[in-house]
Each structure stands twice: as C-alpha cells, then as structure tokens.
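Let us work through a complete example step by step.
Step 1: write down the sequence.
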Amino acid sequence: MLELMLCSLLTIFPDYLYRRYVQGKRIGHEIDLYTVWYELRWGISACLILTVSLITMIFYFHPSTKSVTAVFRTVTILPETIGRVDEVYVGVNEKVAAGAPLFRLDDSQQKAALETARRQIAELEAQTRVAQTELASADGQIQQAQGALQVAIDEYEMKSELLKNDAVARREVQRLANTIDSRKGSVNAALAQKQTLEAKINDLLPAQTASAEAALAQAQVELNKTIVRAGVAGTVQQFTLRPGDVVNTMIRPAGILVPTGAGKGTLIAGFGQIEAQVMKRGMIAEATCVGKPFTIIPLVVTEVQDVIAAGQLRPTDQLVDVQQMAQPGTLTVFLQPLFEGELDDIPPGSSCIANAYTNNHDALADKNIGMMRWLFLHVVDTVALVHAMILRIQALLLPVQTLVFAGH
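Step 2: predict the structure and record it as tokens.
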C-alpha cells in the first residue's frame, strides 16, 4: 500500500492535476467513475508498472524476513550408564554451576567392583612381601646346597687319594662322584629358584599390581559415572526426576540444561533463496522482536551460510526421491547487534522481523562508474528508506496484532 501511494504521487496524481486544472475537467462531471479509467489510463498503468518494479527492487536489494529467531542450544541431561536413581540434588528451574552434581544412580555394583580391585592390590602387595621372604630363604638354600657340594667334593678328593693306595674301595669313590653331581643339581635348582623369585618380584608382581591399579582406576571411573554432573553452567528445565526412576542413555533422558547466555548476542534469520546473490557479510540490518516491542535493533550480518539446509542428503538404506526435497529452503544468515548489549534483554527463542540493506557506497565512489549505473545504485540505496519505514510500522503494529487480533 505504501509503495502504491508513493508511485501514485508520481503518476496518477500529476495526471489528475493536469486534467483538473489545465483541461478544466471536474470530478463528478467530466471525470466520474465511468470515465476514470479512460481519462487516467496512462497514469494508472504507469502507477501499476512502477509499483511492481519498486516492490521488486525493494524486496530484492533490501530483503526482509519474518523467520528470525534468537536460537539457543540446550544440553540433554543423560547418564553414561543405565541405572536407577538413588538421590536427586537439584530441582526444576534451578540454576547450577559447571560440574555441580545433579543426581546419583545406585552405585552398589560399582562400589563392590572398586572394593574388589582394592583387595586385589592388597593381595599382590602381600604376595610381594612373601616373595621377598622366599628370596631370603632361597639365599640360605643356595648356601646350604653349596656347602653340601663342597663337603662332597672334599670327601671325594680325599678318598680319591686313598684309592691310589687301595685304602678305600673304588665303589665308594664312585658313589661320592655321583653325590657331587647330585649336589651340583641341588645348587643349580636353588639358583634357579632364586632367579624365579627375582623375576616374580621384579617383573610379574609389578605387572599384576599395575593391572590391578588400572582395574581400580576403571572401577573408580565407573563409580564416578553414577554421579551425573552439569557439563556447563545453566538452568535445569523439565527435570522431574525422582529417586527410584530408571534413566536410560538412549530412551529416557533426565531433563534439559539451558546453558547460561544461550541465545544471547546472535539472531539467526532465514531469507529467501533468491537473495543469495545479495546477502553479503557486513551488510547492515535491522530487526524488531516480539520480546522487545516498539524497538528497532540495529544489526550487522556476520555470516551467511553457504548451503541450503533443505537440500541436505544423508545416506540411508533407501534411495531418496528428489521430489521429497522440492520444498524450497531458506538462506541461513547470522545477525549480531551493531552495538554491544542490544540483544541482552531479548528472551532466547524470541521471534523477530528483520530487514537487510544493500550498501553501494563503495561502488558509487568508483570514478569509472557509468551514469546509468550511478543513477540506478542511487535509486537502490534510496528505496531502502521505504523498507525501513515499513519495518517501523510493523514494530508499531506488532504488539497490537499479537495482543488484539491474534487473541493472545
């Protein structure tokens, strides 16, 4: 309507003034309802053409959208294991700090595993002390075997000398030789036993102790998992968990955690795909939000997503028909306030209306620009005022539409 009124001031209104005051025609006489089209046909036709051209220019070079939201993320409260709730530490809509405990699952099984790991470590420590005692005993056995071997050697050497004079029987000397071989085997066995004990003390028991300590650490980790903590600072929402409830990592979450500051400082807008060539990073924009009525918020485009979400394809076990993706998606644009703190008092999730304005200042500053292009870019920048006026009218009417006509 505003564009039509502006265009009529340039077409129909001058045409009427010419016929009324130059040709002397009067409303109700020469100019009536029957002859208005014939008399003003050129002005009406030009007004319609100009209106359509103006609207097209405004909405293309200065795009507008009602799909604007202060998007915020939420964190699903989930345990890492399945279990029955034993204790709840927080309530609904309670603010929590990062790392604060939220609830605890039944931990009897985890505590039993932890105690088993501790007992295993204590058992290995006792085995180490026993092995060290056995090692000392092995030293004594080695000395005993070496002493018995030396006695057998001395007796053998003595009777070997007596055998030369036929003072002893040859059979006795042979028996002593066999005794020496047996005593050598005892010494070797005692030495091998000592080496076994040393290997057990230096290698086997430390390795078993390390495994037991790892099992203890794993049991402690599993025990820690029974206490679910807040990953970030925020507010607990939809948290109706009570002792005795069973929570599941896949099926039944415990609630939702809204991080502190979520949805603050950024608006996400969905502009039409036709504006993909116009929307650029650094464009100035404006918005008015339901959560902050009668206010125009100056913004700047900080990022333009280079893909359209509606065309995404994820591999499945079925072929996707392109017709299923025929619904056109929007161009996702990120808007941030031009001045710090402008969006702080807007509730996360608020719906807004936003305009973005094309700026041709750099192109107009080019000395080599042609006359027609210079005139066209000036017109483009000038008609942005119309869209800005429309946004301000929407800001005035938005509370009325929401509270009165929408029945809210």
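Step 3: interpret the result. The chain has a mean pLDDT of 81.
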